[in-house]
């Protein structure tokens, strides 16, 4: 089915060109990833049942097009709510349900039935009698011939990408203007209206994406310290801001529990010594026949109990914060002091203190916080869904109050989930902070280098127009003919856009004058003649 649209103005003729085959969407042909199974399923499709090409199921099973079907039971055994399976493979007669597969973002249908991405499927659709020769796509997928299908796909597309900035939205698969050609009445008009052109070319791009960030302490070098035993604070030897090294005493806790634990260890050591001597004596008597074996075994059992008690008492002291050397000294010296020293686990600075001399404390009470501020973290709120964030990417950080100074670091962690309220992705970067400028809870902006001198196709920003559903450019065919192409854009460093799909390297696009050409294409929507211009008028 071939449809033509022709609009004339004082200087332009606009028409929709019919094509005998599909126009490639990008600079390169997509890889053919069609399976034989998909071809077989196409061949097995029931020709007597209408097919919904937009959602990959039979029309009488598509609950998206026919919401009333959601309340009905599926007419096929084992099938329930098959119409809700968007972007599914064509169903075979014995299929229990349409299997959900990846959708083709460029064309709005299931990837495995997209003939523009999978040219090998063309013959299967033609054999099934489902082919629009005028537009080079299956009739069930032709948005130019099927207005209802075009409207459905356009509505779904708007709902999906409405939250993105225009430059980040992918082309709408239901775009009615794609492929429209604009022909000037004469070549001289292009010169008189001041049309300028730029060639689509490759150039190295270094691109940064910015997002909000909050500075925090390095979680691997930050510690909340509390007393391992209940007691009373007898000494507080450090204050806020004090620099400490590993092992420095922060506070002294007086704990009766510690004294009792030391006494238990000494008692266990004495018991082990006593039963060891008894066992040795009974063993000698047993060898001479003066002591029965039963007495030897009884002493041996008591020795084992005493040894276990000693080990348990020593372990308890370790859990109370004593080092291995301190436990050994308790056993050797026999001291039962109730004073416990709370020490720094690593070198850093005291950033929090709640210890008060004479105050009773429990094990759950935080007394000090120590942080190594030589390295700091920045927690990022990543809001760029179309740019993949990876560990190792370079980051620049600027914080409030130090706008002229930047800190360099790298991404060290990227979350695997989005925040449920903000829908942002959490990530973390590490920054060296030798001068202590970065402070915890500072707010700032980070610039993440997502691209480093990578070759990419680019075109001027002024060449890109918005036609209501897509970013479009006008490709120059000759001095008087220009084709409207929908394009998929990438990052926008400076005054250029990276273009990922829609044009080829070496093609020329209209820069100055592209808006004028767009108004001619859309004049039926904005009102013909609202901006009359007489291009034949002499100045």
Polypeptide structure, described:
The strands form 7 sheets. The chain has a 6-stranded antiparallel sheet with strand order 1-2-7-25-24-23. Strands 9-18-21-20-19-22 form a 6-stranded antiparallel barrel. A 4-stranded antiparallel sheet has the order 10-17-15-12, with no helix packed on it. It contains 9 helices and 28 strands. Strand 26 and strand 27 form a beta hairpin. The longest helix has 33 residues. With 539 residues, the chain is of the alpha+beta class. The N terminus and C terminus are likely disordered. The protein is elongated, with a radius of gyration of 39 Å. Helices cover 22% and strands 29% of the residues. The two termini are 47 Å apart. It has 4 domains: 151 residues, no CATH class; 93 residues, Efflux pump adaptor protein, beta barrel domain (Elongation Factor Tu (Ef-tu), domain 3, Beta Barrel), CATH 2.40.30.170; 58 residues, OB fold (Dihydrolipoamide Acetyltransferase, E2P) (Beta Barrel); 82 residues, Orthogonal Bundle (Helix Hairpins).
Instruction: Count every beta strand, where a strand is a DSSP E run of 2 or more residues.
Output: 28
Q: Main beta sheet, described?
A: 6 strands, antiparallel
Q: Provide the gyration radius in Å.
A: 39 Å
Contiguous uncertain segments of 5+ residues: 1-11, 14-35, 73-101, 527-539
Into which percent range does the helicity of residues fall? 10-25%
Secondary structure category: alpha+beta
Q: Tell me the number of helical segments per DSSP (H or I, 4 or more residues long).
A: 9
Average of the residue pLDDT scores: 77
Give the strand order of the largest sheet, numbering strands 1, 2, ... along the chain: 1-2-7-25-24-23
Strand-residue proportion: 25-35%
Q: Give the termini separation.
A: 47 Å
| Shape annotation | elongated
Number of domains: 4
């Amino acid at each position: 089915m071939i449809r033509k649209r022709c609009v004339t103005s004082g200087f332009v003729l606009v028409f929709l060109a019919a094509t005998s085959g599909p126009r490639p969407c990008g600079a390169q042909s997509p890889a053919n990833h069609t399976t034989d199974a998909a071809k077989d399923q196409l061949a097995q499709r029931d020709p007597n049942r209408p097919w919904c090409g937009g959602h990959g199921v039979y029309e009488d099973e598509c609950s998206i097009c026919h919401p009333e079907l959601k309340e009905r039971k599926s007419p096929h055994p084992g099938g329930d709510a098959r119409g809700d399976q968007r972007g599914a493979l064509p169903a075979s007669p014995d299929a229990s349900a349409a299997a959900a597969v990846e959708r083709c973002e460029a064309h709005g249908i299931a990837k495995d039935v997209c003939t523009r991405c999978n040219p090998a499927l063309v013959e299967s659709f033609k054999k099934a009698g489902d082919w629009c020769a005028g537009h080079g796509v299956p009739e069930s997928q032709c948005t130019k011939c099927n207005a209802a299908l075009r409207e459905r796909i356009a509505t779904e597309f708007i709902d999906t990408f409405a939250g993105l900035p225009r430059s980040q939205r992918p082309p709408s698969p239901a775009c009615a203007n794609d492929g429209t050609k604009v022909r000037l009445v004469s070549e001289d008009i292009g010169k008189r209206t001041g049309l300028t052109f730029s060639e689509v070319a490759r150039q190295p791009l270094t691109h940064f994406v910015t997002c909000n960030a909050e500075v925090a302490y390095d979680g691997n070098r930050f510690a909340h310290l509390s007393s391992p035993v209940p007691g009373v604070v007898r000494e507080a030897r450090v204050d806020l801001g004090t620099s400490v090294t590993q092992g420095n005493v922060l506070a002294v806790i007086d704990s009766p529990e510690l004294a009792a634990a030391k006494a238990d260890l000494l008692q266990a050591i004495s018991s082990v010594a006593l039963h060891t001597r008894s066992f040795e004596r009974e063993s000698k008597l047993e060898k001479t026949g003066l002591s029965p074996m039963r007495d030897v075994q009884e002493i041996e059992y008591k020795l084992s109990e005493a040894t276990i008690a000693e080990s348990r008492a020593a372990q308890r002291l370790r859990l109370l914060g004593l080092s291995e050397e301190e436990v050994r000294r308790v056993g050797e010296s026999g001291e039962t002091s109730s004073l416990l020293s709370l020490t720094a686990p690593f070198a850093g600075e005291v950033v929090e203190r709640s210890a008060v001399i004479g105050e009773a404390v429990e094990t759950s009470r935080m007394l000090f916080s120590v942080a190594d501020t030589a390295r700091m973290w920045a927690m990022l709120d990543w809001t760029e869904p179309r740019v993949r964030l990876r560990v190792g990417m370079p980051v620049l950080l600027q914080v409030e109050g130090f706008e002229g100074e930047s800190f360099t670091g790298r991404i060290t962690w990227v979350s695997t989930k989005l925040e449920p309220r903000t829908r942002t992705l959490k990530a973390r970067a590490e920054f060296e902070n030798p001068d202590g400028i970065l402070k915890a809870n500072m707010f700032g902006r980070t610039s993440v280098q997502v691209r480093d001198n990578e070759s990419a196709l680019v075109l001027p920003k002024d060449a890109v127009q918005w036609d209501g559903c897509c970013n479009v450019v006008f490709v120059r065919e000759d001095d008087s003919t220009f084709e409207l192409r929908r394009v998929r854009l990438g990052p926008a460093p400076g005054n250029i856009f990276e273009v990922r799909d829609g044009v080829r390297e070496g093609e020329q696009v209209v820069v100055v004058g592209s808006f004028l050409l767009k108004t001619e294409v859309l004049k039926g929507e904005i009102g013909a003649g609202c901006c009359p211009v007489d291009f034949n008028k002499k100045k």
